[in-house]
Design brief:
Largest sheet: 11 strands, mixed
Number of strands: 21
CATH topology of one domain: Dipeptide-binding Protein, domain 3
Oligomer: single chain
CATH class of one domain: Alpha Beta
Distance between the termini: 27 Å
CATH superfamily of one domain: Dipeptide-binding Protein, Domain 3
Length: 566
């Protein structure tokens, strides 16, 4: 069976129009499987998708994005625009109004002070925030009354839907997190594992890197929702086992990120117990090149920091050679089939922001060898290149996942064909994407030469996503390794473009700037090596209704509308 694919901005869904919910919790229990187990329920302390998505069941922003990428109100009573007066004509201010009568799950009122506190929490100079780019360009936040949030920008902000919009930028309860500012943020285990929220569910128990147990929020703003009284989000295992748990055994109702090869997808789809949901958005599997030295010989606190440039990868000829050696179409064929497509872009969509950057799509082994020759790396007797007595060796890490290990094996073969000794490492996904500042194995800490992963951005505007590569977003000990600039790229000219895009309203110019920044990161500097434009692929049981895959926000974006098919 050939998997159905979606056009840009659309999504496939297995959904049956629900009857009106008789009462909250009437449909009992729902089981969800995130095989990359969540390690925290505070998305400000982890940029791992599995943490952001799990937290979104509990925590919400003022608005989010629907399956079309449109901004939709959540805690706000409406979406502010220039037309309705909510955004100032000069684009320097946006005013949000909370829905009246909102309550936290503990029964206390939600106020504008909670939003202001969240901003202060993420931007605290002594702390590290994994979502700091969402708050870039804010001059101040004012709260003239309990239901009004006024955000003033330091310059005109054509895209004002960043702070408090989408799953990566929810509002925290000020009372609960009051003692968790700055350096104390990561020490607040009770708060980070059991946040009080406004979403359809609340936490009853959290076992880190294992299970989240949830119950319907008794104070959720729609008295008839959610339809399920309880939910379990189970972590662990792998993508194939997760897919089988829905598609074959029926043990789970929904499985996230069923990243399996096309043959397995087709075999499972014939079982009749579930369906795969697939849609293209902005999810790109890529390799990041470490611009800093991750050597274990360096003192802790200096490894993988800007104190020490990478001894090999700072040469763009080496980075470019590694990219040229890769056959991206083979990766797609092996790992994704129709659910993937080769790409040279970090920002593959929407179309207006996608660069005409196709130079990496044709594998060029001889060109890669020529670049390494030019850089002075000479093949030794064993075929591995050497320079000044040093072997050309890279440690290549990623998360544990059959498709990713297939990619590693293929890429290792191509790199060794051009004379690069390649050591492979895979790390449990719950640890790799966990954001634990004490772990040596997180993708933020980056104690390797190159690493592979995929992520995407909320909504359809790439401005905050591209802002992640600002010089001041580099992870390090000072920010508890929570910066978003994973490869430690720093170029003042790039920072200028981010600032310019932030102040540019004309869409043609915004498009031009986004493409230029994409190209700076990819083909011009090769610090990001895109591989595959991945469609989201998850699995839903035939007994679960209301699911609607969203590639522009979290997959749990409409969990309040899920129901049991009778």
């Amino acid at each position: 069976m050939k998997l159905k694919t979606a056009l840009l901005g659309a999504a496939c869904a297995f959904a049956i129009a629900p009857a009106a919910f008789a009462e909250r919790g009437a449909d009992g229990h729902v089981n969800v499987l995130y095989w990359q187990a969540p390690s925290t329920l505070n998305p400000y302390l982890s940029s791992g998708t599995k943490d952001v998505e799990s937290a979104s069941l509990i925590l919400e922003g003022l608005a989010g994005f629907n399956e079309k990428g449109e901004v939709v109100a959540r805690l706000a009573d409406s979406v502010p625009t220039v037309e309705n007066g909510g955004v100032s004509a000069d684009l320097t201010q946006i005013t949000w109004k909370l829905k009246p009568g909102l309550l936290w799950s503990d029964g206390t009122p939600v106020t504008s002070a909670d939003a202001k506190f969240t901003y202060e929490y993420c931007t605290h100079p002594e702390g590290g925030c994994a979502q700091a780019a969402r708050y870039e360009g804010i001059a101040s936040i004012d709260t003239p009354d309990a239901e009004t949030v006024v955000i003033t920008f330091s310059a005109p902000k054509p895209n004002p839907y960043t702070a408090f919009v989408g799953g990566t930028s929810p509002i925290l309860q000020a009372a609960q997190f009051a003692n968790c500012l700055g350096a104390a943020a990561s020490t607040c285990t009770e708060q980070n594992f059991g946040p009080i929220g406004t979403g359809p569910f609340m936490v009853t128990e959290f076992k880190t890197n294992d299970t989240v147990s949830l119950a319907a929020n008794p104070n959720y703003r729609d008295p008839a929702k959610p339809a399920f009284a309880t939910m379990t989000v189970k972590g662990g295992g792998d993508a194939e086992a997760a897919a089988r748990a829905v598609m074959e055994t029926g043990e789970f109702d929904y499985a996230w990120n069923t990243q399996i090869n096309p043959e397995l997808q087709a075999a499972m789809a014939g079982g009749g117990k579930g369906t795969f949901l697939n849609g293209f958005g902005t999810l790109v599997e890529r390799i990041e090149m470490n611009m800093t030295d991750p050597s274990a010989d360096l003192p802790e606190g200096e490894r993988a920091t800007t104190m020490h440039p990478h001894p090999i990868l700072t040469d763009i000829r080496v980075r470019t050679a590694l990219s040229k050696a890769i056959d991206r179409q083979v990766l797609v064929d092996v790992g994704y089939g129709s659910a993937g497509r080769p790409t040279c872009n970090l920002v593959p969509a929407p179309e207006m922001f996608a660069s005409d950057n196709t130079g990496c799509l044709t594998q060029d082994i001889e060109g890669a060898k020529a670049l390494l020759d030019e850089a002075g790396w000479v093949p030794g007797a064993d075929g591995i290149r050497e320079k000044d007595g040093v072997k050309l060796h890279v440690l290549y890490q990623t998360s544990t996942n059959p498709v990713r290990q297939d990619f590693q094996a293929l890429i290792k073969g191509w790199w060794e064909e051009i004379g690069v000794s390649t050591e492979l490492k895979n790390i449990d996904a719950s640890v790799y994407f966990g954001g634990d500042a004490g772990s040596p194995d997180t993708f933020q800490k980056f104690y390797a030469d190159v690493e592979m992963y995929a992520n995407n951005f909320d909504g359809t505007d790439p401005e905050p996503y591209l802002a992640q590569y600002l010089c001041d977003k580099i992870p390090g000990p000072a920010n508890q390794w929570q910066g978003e600039n994973i490869n430690r790229f720093c170029d003042p000219a790039y920072d200028v473009l981010v600032k310019e895009m932030s102040a540019t309203a004309e869409m043609g110019k915004r498009s031009e700037l986004a493409k230029k920044m994409n190209d700076m990161l990819t083909k011009d500097s090769m610090v990001v090596v895109p591989l595959v434009d991945r469609g989201r692929l998850s699995a839903a049981s035939t007994s679960l209704g209301g699911t609607l895959l969203n590639t522009w926000d979290t997959e749990m974006w409409n969990v309040q509308d899920w129901f049991r098919v009778k």
